[in-house]
Amino acid sequence: MLQKVESLHKELSDNQRRWNEEKRQLISEQAAASQRLSAAHRQELNELRSTNTELEDQKTNLKDSNRNFDKEKNLMEQRLADAERRRELEHLDAEK
Question: How many Cα atoms are found within 13 Å in the side-chain-facing hemisphere of 95?
Fold first, then answer.
């Protein structure tokens, strides 16, 4: 009977040791998977931030380009208006 109890106690101890090893392995695998997932999310977030920065830069460049275009357009319209006024004045002077 004592041997049976000792045998069962040893079996219980062995099973508890194996369970603790398996549990540690599972916890370790879960931690590694979590770290990989976190790293992937950080990488994706960094890529999104980089893309967002590039798009913001493009937006700023387009606004600057539009602003420069508008300035150039206004300058050309002013020059055209001045040229038309000079032509009208020259035409009026020629009629006199």
Answer: 6
